[in-house]
Amino acid sequence: MSPEKELRAAIAACRTCAGHLPHGVRPVASFSATARLLIIGQAPGSKVHESGIPWDDASGDRLREWTGLTKAQMYDPARVALVPMGFCYPGKASGGDKPPRRECAPQWHARVLDVLPDDRLTLLVGTYAQAHYLPQTRKLSMTERVRAFRDHLPHAIPLPHPAWRSTLWMRQNPWFEAEVLPVLREAIARRI
């Protein structure tokens, strides 16, 4: 078995957080050694937990709209790695889902990143991914971080989480659609 397949099997068998997951363990991640686009999100929601398919919900539809990726492209692990901060659905909290479990990223991310090509583009979707991978920007709001997206090119682009709430955020921040999305789509097209 290749190291990549061994890693995928180890992630699928992970039970580190089992005692903290009210809906059970179901790690959701997709990657391969050729994926030049990496999308790091929060954690699977309830629909993704049920299907086992990353971004298989309205947020995924909106993310595909932003990126210009088709479903076939997004779900092709040879092209796109889908690696959340927490691999399992953390359950509900007031106002949405609980945060991703803190054990996941330290346990798995470095190993996954070692498999991926060095010339990849990483989309940091939401504040959890941004706080972890852009620690120097922790004092900035998510809006300020996304607005300064050029500071992280050509390797990373911070994005808001594409949940339903992002519709209001986009109306309040029209520069996102005008300035960020064209650069995002072009950067993705170069990698895909």
Question: How would you characterize this protein structure?
Answer:
It is globular and about 45 Å long. The chain is built from nine helices and six strands; from the N terminus they run αβαααβββαβααβαα. Helix 1 runs antiparallel to helix 5. Strand 3 and strand 4 form a beta hairpin. With 192 residues, it is α/β, with parallel strands linked by helices. The model has no long low-confidence stretch (mean pLDDT 95). The longest helix is centred in the C-terminal third of the chain and has 17 residues. A four-stranded parallel sheet has the order 2-1-5-6.
* Parts with pLDDT < 50 across at least 5 consecutive residues: none
Number of strands: 6
Share of helix, binned: 40-55%
Outline type: globular
Q: How many helical stretches?
A: 9
State the distance separating the first and last CA atoms: 27 Å
- Main sheet: which strands, in order across? 2-1-5-6
Percent strand equals 5-15%
Give the SSE order as H and E letters: HEHHHEEEHEHHEHH
Q: What does the average pLDDT come to? A: 95
Radius of gyration: 16 Å
Structural class: alpha/beta
Query: What is the makeup of the main sheet?
Result: 4 strands, parallel
